[in-house]
Write a structure and sequence with these properties.
Elements (H helix, E strand, L loop, with lengths): L1 H29 L2 H12 L1 E6 L8 E2 L5 E2 L1 H12 L3 E6 L2 H10 L4 E2 L7 H6 E3 L4 E3 L1 E6 L15 E4 L4 H8 L4 E4 L3 H9 L5 E5 H10 L5 E6 L4 E3 L2 E3 L3 H16 L2 H10 L8
Helix pairs in contact: 2-9, 3-9
Length: 271
């Protein structure tokens, strides 16, 4: 009898321990979720930031092959304000999103615009840029003068980008995928695509570098898009620190300074 009683007590004790472990694990996955990413980046001592690295003047390589651009400097500023180092990872747009979802990257800094679809999946930082979408065609193209004229036409943009979404909303025949701003404009110049949709400041920067390019802007969205940092849902403590850093950079005039350096104008003030 004593042996049976001891076995029963041991079994009950093991069951209680298992239930306690499951309870603590459950608590950790809910109550601790909001601060988990912030804790992790502090432990690592760095923020891992994903970007394309081929989209001037947001993120690109200069003549010395150094990673530079508006978002590069903004991300460095955010990390510095948080007392952390920064590690940049470059890749194609869809891979950046997948990496953020999987937790390989802490955030994306790549001129990311807020959309209703994205807002369902991610939380966003406070805006650090305000831009419009330009509709660009070849200089001799008289068929397209508005977004409504895109119906049945071919456009070219990064796959899964905001611009692809807008183009498809106007009934384009197809969107041809590209990786860089140069490829985008070359597709239009060569006639392989009828038009491209892109950030107005990106188009202006391209034309400042390639003034001979026979391209023209025929339309522009009326309302400004918000450029923000997408963050995984629920990471409220991390988001709060990112927001705090952005506002500090804004108050110091640093955001404006970086914008003028890369765009020739201040895109960081509310329109």
């Amino acid at each position: 009898m004593k042996t049976r009683e001891l076995l029963l007590k041991k079994a009950l004790a093991n069951t209680s321990a298992l239930l306690l472990l499951l309870f603590l694990t459950a608590c950790g996955s809910t109550d601790g979720e909001t601060s988990d990413q912030l804790t992790q980046v502090k432990q690592k001592g760095k923020i891992v930031v994903a970007m394309e690295g081929q989209w001037a003047p947001w993120t690109y390589h200069n003549e010395q092959d150094e990673l530079v651009g508006f978002d590069v400097e903004v991300a460095r500023g955010i990390a510095e304000k948080m007392g952390l180092d920064v590690e940049f990872v470059e890749g194609e747009w869809d891979g950046l999103v997948a990496g953020l979802d999987a937790g390989r990257y802490d955030m994306i800094a790549n001129g990311v615009e807020v959309t209703d679809e994205r807002a369902e999946k991610y939380d966003f930082s406070v805006p650090y840029g305000y831009i419009h979408t330009s509709l660009v065609v070849r200089a001799d193209n008289d068929e397209i003068g508005s977004f409504e004229d895109l119906a049945g036409k071919l456009t070219t943009n990064s796959i899964a980008s905001t611009y692809e979404t807008i183009a498809r909303s106007y009934g384009v025949k197809d969107v041809l995928g590209v990786d860089t701003i140069d490829e985008t404009m070359n597709m239009v110049l060569s006639g392989r695509a009828d038009a491209t949709l892109n950030a107005n400041v990106s188009f202006y920067d391209y034309m400042s570098v390639h003034p001979e390019a026979e391209l023209k802007e025929v339309a522009q969205t009326k309302d400004a898009s918000l450029v923000c940092v997408p963050i995984r849902k629920g990471e409220t403590a991390f988001k709060a620190e990112v927001d705090k850093a952005i506002e500090a950079l804004r108050a110091e005039g640093k955001l404006s300074e970086i914008s003028v350096k890369y765009f020739g104008s201040d895109i960081t003030g509310k329109p």
